[in-house]
Structure formats: structure tokens, C-alpha cells
Request: fold
Amino acid sequence: MKQGKQLEIRDAVESEYALIEEVTRAAYEEYATVMPAPFWEVYWRHALATLKEKGPVERLVAVDTTGIVGSVLLYPPLANAYDGAEVDTPAPEVRLLAVSPRVRGLGVGNALMDECVRRARKMGATQLGLHTMDVMQATVRMYARMGFIHMPALDFRPAEGILVKGYN
Reply:
């Protein structure tokens, strides 16, 4: 990480869940202006519910000297990471990658994803899945740089005019 700040990627503890929600809200706020308003409202409510789920998920945080600056959820294979969507997720699945806007471009997202890849391999997985939308341009570019490939068979449409793209 630039600027001499130490970055640690670790499991979150329950007392940090509210901070994870704050970082996620700050990271995702920009999409409220580029997504159709009705879809954004549903999307954000679902994101908040996902952050509060008690299911089989690893909650990872990126911590520097200022506190939590990023987070991500890692679901084990076949964990139904997209409750309600008809999406088959046979590989571990990454959800809700969030990086505080004040540290974007400093490698926080890459560090979180690297840890997800490491943990997926430790699970014995040969693939790691994720879903994103074209409006999330910075993450789409990062995933491409990391070697993730768009897999149209994993795409789904949660609402008319909205395409969520699957990657491995």
C-alpha cells in the first residue's frame, strides 16, 4: 500500500459489522446516481441484508493505521450467495467488495481479492466466482487485470434493463 500505511487483511469480528456497513455505503454511494432509482433502492436494501446475514460466509476486512478501509464477503461453494436469484454458484463466490473512497487506487481491493483467491484455493477450489455490473467500471477493470473472465452463462437479470455479469 502506498503512503507508508500498513495494510492487514483479516477476518472481521462482530463488533466491526457496523463499520463494514459504513465502508460499504461509502464505496457504493456513487452507484445511486447511475442506476435507476427504483433498482438502486432495492439493490441497497439487499446489500444491507446481505451484510447482516448469519449464513456460511467469511467476512474479510482491510485494516490500515486509520481503521477499516475495505471489506468483502467470501461464500463457500454452493452457498446460495445470491438468495432469490437463479444463479448457480458451484465455486466460492465473492460479494460486496468495498473500498473506502479515500484509499482507492492504493491496492486495497487487490489485497482483499488476493486473500479471497488464497482462501478459495485453500478450500480446494479451482475457480472463484463473482458478479458485477458494467456501471462498476473500476471493479470490472480490476477483475480483468486479475485474470477474471466474463462467463455469460453466469449472468442474471434482477430487473428489466439490468444485467449482472458473472465472472470466474
Q: What stands out?
A: The mean pLDDT is 91.
